[in-house]
Amino acid sequence: MLxxxxxxxxYGAISALRxxxxxxxxxxxxxxxxxxxxxxxxxxxxxxxLLRAKRGGITFKGEDITKxxxxxxxARGLCHVPEGRxxxxxxxxxxxxxxxxxxxxxxxxxxxxxxxxxxxxPRLKERLAQAAGTLSGGEQQMLAxxxxxxxxxxxxxLDEPSLGIxxxxxxxxxxxxxEINQSHGITILLVEQNxxxxxxxxxxxxxLETGTVxxxxxxxxxRNNPELKAAYLGG
Length: 235
Prior knowledge:
Blueprint: E1 2-11, E2 14-24, E3 29-33, H1 40-47, E4 55-60, E5 63-64, H2 70-75, E6 78-81, H3 93-100, H4 107-120, H5 122-126, H6 137-149, E7 155-159, H7 167-184, E8 187-191, H8 195-201, E9 204-209, E10 212-218, H9 219-223, H10 226-232
Parallel strand pairs: 3-8, 3-9, 6-7, 7-8
Antiparallel strand pairs: 1-2, 1-4, 4-5, 9-10
Helix pairs in contact: 3-6
């Protein structure tokens, strides 16, 4: 479904990604793990068109999307939940969800998508009229994912969904990620600082180190890799 080949991205003279390549099969949960500054967020931002690659290419469902603007990438079914959630804090929950459907014109389909979001995150339905900025961190994360689901993604990219969330809600968020994958067959690319959790729910994993892919394989295999355990899993 997604193929990233020989990606190179720079911030001015500083190289953030060097020759990064990976692919994602439809229906899978794939995780990118690595230390802070390894290039995980840069990778997602480049895939979604927010950053431009210096070299390399990105194909989505067989189409080259490397130079497409973000809204055209979203229209093709690739949605990005950014690090820090980035909800519109002064808008209500209802208005935030409507923003996620801004490319959609079929009102019946929009209503159907909204019902699906409420089935995954019932708490959002209870807080429809509430300003997004007054929600807890976990509720804002639910809203950010719900907003992306309103765009009908075939591939959903999640950047640090556990960041700044109360521990008791983290497991709920991750259960919902698995549910979204299993119930709707939505492919997921997950960036997550909590490597244990990410490897637990994903099928495949890539380890980024200073802008390059250092390790890759089935998540279950990597969880038992001594080198990875020592570096990221507290063992």
